[in-house]
């Protein structure tokens, strides 16, 4: 049965750690607006073409209001980062959204990231030292990919180093699709919420040089700042967004380069390709997780299909990034590709606030690894790499390497 006659399960099952599911190319060619069934059993509409995904991400009629009564639930238990009350506390559109982005975005400019670069390099050096001490083979995800972004975002938010490790579990429960039950998710979210409340209260009493303190100092909504609950939720959202996605991407980036080791050799010979390599790995990533869900608050048309009000649309940026009409030789990883207008960070007013941070972290990791561990290689065949399952983000369970 062809893709246009059946309702696919989404996320589309796929065993290959780094390759896209075969259905993507078929969907783009024959069924760009497809009906899918989510883990909750609810129906949604999946978009896989570059132009369609870009159009929807820029269209204000496609909102983040996934807790609307007729919105599709992503997981059977509801909750999760896309449809929790948290998602509604950060303003979704209009002047309020612009103000939120201005206040928070000041911390994520390319200029500020450059200033943080030496600290990131030190963190990467220390983590690699520890990996080398423990000896090969090692797990690059656990040893470097995971801790580096957590340490960086915790430093930015002013979270004490001793508390860093608690966040990965809280973060996982917020990104749940099928891994955790309702009671477990609610308990973890309550703990996370309490932790952030205490942290914000502590900073109000004794501000430091960090993002949360600066948001508090900016005053409340009447002064052009954020309310207490908005500051608290912003902190939670940045911790989740700022560690999970980049932690996974570090593992995938290195795996893609080592899966065909001529790519790694090429970078060793010419480290000036690091910047374009990072962009290409973001485009080429076939294991980026769920994609971006959007709720439609007015009837509209995409690719000739009429979508009624109340439709939940899932934008697969990863499928769109493999669209041959947008990228020449889209199925090839080209380390020199430029320009590279991939959609890994979304597009339009809601494009990823932390993209300069993610780019800097990925560049730093690559730079330090090439210098410190030039003989790096995968310690298992690529076929044995396993995907992270049951969460809204894509990644590899571990990245076994030797050097």
TrEMBL record:
Cofactors that this protein relies on: heme
Organism superkingdom: Bacteria
Signal peptide start and end residues: none
Keyword entries, A-Z: Heme, Iron, Metal-binding, Monooxygenase, Oxidoreductase
Single GO term (MF): oxidoreductase activity, acting on paired donors, with incorporation or reduction of molecular oxygen
Family recorded in the similarity comment: Belongs to the cytochrome P450 family.
SUPFAM superfamilies assigned to the protein according to its UniProt record, in alphabetical order: Cytochrome P450 (SSF48264)
Name of the featured protein: Cytochrome P450
InterPro entries (UniProt xref): Cyt_P450, Cyt_P450_B, Cyt_P450_CS, Cyt_P450_sf
Pfam families: p450
């Amino acid at each position: 049965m062809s893709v246009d006659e059946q309702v696919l399960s989404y996320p589309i099952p796929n065993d290959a750690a780094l390759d896209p599911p075969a259905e993507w190319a078929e969907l783009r060619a024959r069924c760009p607006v497809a009906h899918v069934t989510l883990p909750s059993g609810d129906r949604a509409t999946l978009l896989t073409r570059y132009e369609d995904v870009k159009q929807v991400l820029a269209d204000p009629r496609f909102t983040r209001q996934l807790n609307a009564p007729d919105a599709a639930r992503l997981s059977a238990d509801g909750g999760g980062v896309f449809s929790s009350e948290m998602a509604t506390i950060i303003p979704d559109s209009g002047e309020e959204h612009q103000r939120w982005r201005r206040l928070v975005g000041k911390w994520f400019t390319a200029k500020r990231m450059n200033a943080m670069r030496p600290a990131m390099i030190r963190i990467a050096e220390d983590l690699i030292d520890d990996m080398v001490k423990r000896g090969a083979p090692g797990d690059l995800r656990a040893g470097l990919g995971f801790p580096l972004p957590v340490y960086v975002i915790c430093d930015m938010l002013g979270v004490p180093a001793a508390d860093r490790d608690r966040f990965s579990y809280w973060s996982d429960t917020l990104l749940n699709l099928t891994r955790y039950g309702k009671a477990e998710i609610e308990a973890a979210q309550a703990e996370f919420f309490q932790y952030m409340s205490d942290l914000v209260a502590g900073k109000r009493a004794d501000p430091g040089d960090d993002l949360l303190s600066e948001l508090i100092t900016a005053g409340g909504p009447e002064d052009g700042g954020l309310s207490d609950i908005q500051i608290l939720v912003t902190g939670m959202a940045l911790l989740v967004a700022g560690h999970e996605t980049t932690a996974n991407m570090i593992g995938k980036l290195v795996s893609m380069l080592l899966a065909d080791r001529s790519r790694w050799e090429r970078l060793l010979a010419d480290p000036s390709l690091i910047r374009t390599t990072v962009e290409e790995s973001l485009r080429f990533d076939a294991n980026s997780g769920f994609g971006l869900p959007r709720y439609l608050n007015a009837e509209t048309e995409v690719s000739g299909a009429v979508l009624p009000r109340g439709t939940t649309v899932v934008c697969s940026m990863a499928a769109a990034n493999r669209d041959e009409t947008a990228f020449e030789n889209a199925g090839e990883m080209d380390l020199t590709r430029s320009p590279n207008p991939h959609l890994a960070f979304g597009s339009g007013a809601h494009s990823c606030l932390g993209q300069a941070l993610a780019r800097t972290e990925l560049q730093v990791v690559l730079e330090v690894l090439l210098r410190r561990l030039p003989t790096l290689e995968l310690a298992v065949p690529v076929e044995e790499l396993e995907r992270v399952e049951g969460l809204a983000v894509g990644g590899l369970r571990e990245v076994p390497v030797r050097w």
